[in-house]
Amino acid sequence: MSKVLWHITMSPDGFIAPRDHSTEWMFEHGSAGPMGGEVMERAGAILAGRRGYDLGMRAGSGPRAVYGGAWQGPVFVLTRRPRDSASGVTFLSGSIQEAVATAREAAGANDVGVFGAGLAGQCISAGLVDEIFVHLVPVLPGDGLRLFSMTGSASVRLRKTRRSSAGGPGRRGAGGGGATPASAAGEPRLGTAAG
To answer: For the chain, what are the domain ranges?
Structure first.
């Protein structure tokens, strides 16, 4: 069965977006490195939240496309404000479980990539995330949208599975890592990379 992967870029102080939730800052730090490439290869479908879609994520090609246009496939947007599907994007309005099931069916034997903090938080709370890939980028915004913030929810234990580095002195780039909920213990595993 396919896995559900949360793939996210984060600053070392725990933020995934500035206060305005824009995504521009992510494009200033180079590529996602080898683990980002792995996620792209594994993903057969993308499930995203409406805010991320409205802020610029699009199917197709170009710098604002999913993975800068390097990935092609079905994109699903879970929203309370559905609209007609357009250019490779299908809008869904059901439960998080239904949305993941739809994306899994479209992904076939491949995995489902999850984009967005709110949507990923819903998936984690529902026990649907299998792996988390975090790309650390060299910037400290000091404020903004946190990686995970679910008020009133129980803590989620992660198991670190690997770490890699892409970039370094004189090189721009973001690294990637993988985390997976431990199947038996129900804990997502976590991989990180520093750029």
So the answer is: 4-194
Q: How crowded is residue 20: how many other Cβ atoms within 10 Å of its Cβ? A: 10
Of 125, 112, 43, 118, whose CA–CA distance to 78 is shortest?
118
Tokens of 142: 């000091």
Contacts of 155 (CB under 8 A, 6+ apart): none
Give the residues across from 86 on adjacent strands: 89
Nearest to 122 by CA among 148, 91, 155, 144: 148
Task: Reply yes or no on whether the pLDDT at 140 is more than 80.
Answer: yes
Classify domain 4-194 at the CATH topology level.
Answer: Dihydrofolate Reductase, subunit A (3.40.430)
pLDDT tens, position by position, 21-62: 777 777 676 666 777 888 889 999 999 988 777 766 555 555
Q: Where are the alpha helices (DSSP H) in 1-155?
A: 33-42, 50-54, 96-107, 117-125
Rounded-to-integer distance, Cα 87 and Cα 67, Å: 16
- Which structure tokens are listed for 33? 């490195």
* pLDDT tens-digit map of 142-192: 888 888 776 666 777 787 877 776 554 333 333 444 444 433 345 555 555
Burial 64-103 (b: 16+ CB within 10 A, else e): ebbbeeebebbbbbbbeeeeeeeeebbbbeeebeebbebb
